[in-house]
Structure to design on (312 residues):
């Protein structure tokens, strides 16, 4: 493992305003151009070298482990946050892309674009628990709040797939219009919101009925999606229009659109729900936004080609 501490980016940030950007939070960012996982905490930016092109990212709720997929190197890295030790998950599939952890951390799942394999691992021991071949090439994955099932977007097939995590079997699928890209559950697990790549639409899925219950308009090419900790808002990064759409969950009403910069990717929230951290791949930075006002508070340079973000 190679780790280095970089002070300049955050010193620059702190001169732009008050330290309310969330110094106490640990912000994790995958940076493909640097082949690294960046950890921002208390004014320090630390780069953990992984090599390859680290892409998607999940961090355990207790903040002890970070999981990173690299489809180009066909690896999934597990980083012990406290001592920065690295382990390679013993995957069997090719082209790992989709990644998610169950809310209790008991299970980790990996969806492989290369061979459509879906793998389930013990979240503590990192040992395999089961695998199956999916009927379509997977893209992204989300685990239900009760930890029982994983829903997966099959973008090129225009389908959503459902896997029973305890039995490791296909539990259902549904055909949808367009190209489903990313997805997130509301905290009560009743709804699943899905971005439609190449369009301007978000689908709302009734999880129990496995049917589309609504549709919301976003910006150009809605990309990644996240729900605020209190479950009241859904934030969608619009890759084509360089902004974020903020929508009220209950009324499905657009609240605002926030310009953040070119090619925004993932978005994540501080645990208290006060700040949103939006990755701007085209700007090589993380944009910090105040959730209540929608105001861009600060910008953190992180290196070339950032993609995933998580906050603990």
């Amino acid at each position: 493992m190679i780790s280095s501490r970089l002070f300049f980016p955050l010193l620059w940030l702190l001169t732009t305003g008050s330290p309310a950007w969330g110094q106490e939070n640990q912000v994790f960012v995958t940076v493909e151009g640097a082949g690294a996982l960046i950890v921002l905490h208390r004014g320090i930016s630390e780069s953990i070298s992984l090599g390859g092109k680290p892409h998607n990212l999940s961090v355990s709720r207790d903040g002890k482990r970070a999981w990173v997929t690299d489809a180009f190197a066909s690896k999934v890295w597990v980083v012990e946050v406290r001592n920065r030790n690295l382990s390679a998950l013993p995957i069997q599939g090719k082209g790992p892309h989709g990644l998610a952890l169950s809310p209790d951390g008991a299970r980790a799942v990996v969806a492989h674009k290369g061979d459509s394999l879906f793998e389930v691992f013990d979240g503590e021991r990192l040992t395999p628990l089961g695998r199956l071949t999916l009927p379509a090439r997977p893209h992204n994955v989300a685990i239900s709040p009760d930890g029982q099932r994983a829903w997966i977007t099959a973008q090129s097939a225009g389908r959503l797939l459902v896997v029973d995590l305890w039995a490791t079997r296909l539990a259902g699928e549904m055909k949808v219009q367009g190209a489903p890209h990313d997805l997130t559950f509301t905290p009560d697990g009743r709804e699943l919101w899905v971005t439609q790549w190449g369009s301007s639409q978000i689908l709302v899925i009734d999880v129990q009925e496995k049917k589309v219950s609504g549709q919301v308009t976003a910006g150009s090419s809605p990309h990644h999606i996240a729900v605020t900790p209190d479950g009241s808002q859904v934030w969608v990064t619009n890759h084509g229009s360089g902004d974020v759409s903020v929508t009220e969950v209950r009324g499905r009403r657009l609240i605002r659109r926030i310009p953040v910069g070119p090619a925004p990717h993932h978005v994540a929230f501080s645990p208290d729900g006060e700040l949103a951290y939006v990755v701007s791949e085209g700007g090589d930075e993380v944009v910090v936004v105040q959730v209540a006002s929608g105001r861009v508070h600060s910008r953190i340079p992180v290196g070339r080609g950032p993609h995933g973000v998580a906050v603990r």
Summary: The helical segments are 8-14. The chain has one helix and 29 strands. The chain has a mean pLDDT of 93.
